[in-house]
Design brief:
- It is a single chain.
- The protein is mostly helical.
- It has two domains: 60 residues, no CATH class; 219 residues, MetI-like fold, CATH 1.10.3720.10.
- The chain is built from twelve helices and no strands.
- The radius of gyration is 24 Å and the shape is globular.
- The N and C termini lie far apart (55 Å).
């Protein structure tokens, strides 16, 4: 009998572990399930009490409405994509030389500047958005792609520089010394040796910057006043939610559509992202 009980303990432990993991997964994925379920409901069914977990009158009209651009969905998606791509490119291009300098070039005040860069991430965007709005109004940058890209880049660049610095620190200094013996200058070392070795890290930084602007609400809402310049977060907020309307079906359908590109990017770049984040976490 005792031997039988001992044999049952591992099985019971595995069963309990499986139950706990299943509950955790259900908790994590429930918002996604509810988003997809609500996107297939007519708007009046989204307010049903008790709620309908599975739509009884499923419809794809909400998706048709978004793809026909009735509420401006395609405009918001286009603006968000353009601004996010530009922000990612600018952030990566600027953070490459900055991160390399912090990792491999000794200069006075490097430690203090690094601390300031990290400390700048402690300030929420809402703290500077009012002064930024006043500055943009003087410079005529409101309702422009340039203004949005500059705002998003200023918010994502400090963290990107800090991450890129970690990636470059994984490259031994002996590599730089050997390249300099061969006659390469700093720029050639960076372009020919440094950048190819940290490509996974650059992809991770680029994706972080893309998602930062893709999901940003406070800057996009404050620095745009015209509907034709809104990105997805402020567009959804001002179009589908208001004092006299709640278009939950349209909003959830649009949310599903804008989630698909990010999921596809994660799946396509998963291998590079994992290797990049691990490389940046280990100092060589």
């Amino acid at each position: 009998m005792r031997r039988f009980d001992l044999d049952r303990r591992p099985a019971a432990k595995r069963a309990l572990t499986g139950i706990v993991l299943a509950l955790c997964l259900a908790f994590v994925f429930f918002p996604t399930f509810w988003m997809v379920s609500s996107s297939l409901k007519p708007n009046r069914d989204a307010f049903a009490v008790p709620p309908e977990w599975v739509p009884r009158r499923a419809t794809v009209e909400n998706y048709r409405s978004q793809l026909r651009d009735r509420g401006g969905f395609l405009t918001y998606a286009k603006n968000g994509f353009l601004v996010s791509i530009e922000n990612a490119i600018v952030t990566v291009l600027v953070s490459i030389p900055a991160g390399y300098a912090f990792a491999h070039i000794p200069f006075r005040g490097k430690r203090a500047i690094t601390v300031l860069i990290i400390a700048s991430q402690m300030f929420p965007g809402v703290v500077i958005v009012i002064s930024l709005f006043s500055l943009y109004r003087v410079l005529h940058l409101l309702d422009t792609y340039t203004g949005l890209v500059l705002a998003f880049t200023s918010f994502s660049l400090p963290f990107a520089v800090w991450m890129i610095r970690g990636f470059f620190e994984t490259i031994p200094t002996e590599v730089d010394e050997a390249a300099r013996v061969d006659g390469c200058n700093r720029l050639q070392i960076l372009v020919r040796i440094g950048v190819p070795l940290v490509v996974p890290g650059l992809l991770a930084v680029g994706l972080f910057s893309f998602l930062n602007s893709w999901n940003n609400l406070i800057f996009a809402l404050s620095l745009t006043t015209e509907q034709g310049m809104r990105t997805i977060p402020p567009g959804f907020l001002l179009t589908y939610v208001g004092e006299f309307q709640y278009k939950w079906g349209d909003m959830f359908a649009g949310s599903v559509l804008v989630t698909l590109p990010t999921v596809a990017i994660f799946i396509a770049l998963q291998r590079f992202l994992v290797s990049g984040l691990v490389a940046g976490a280990v100092k060589g």
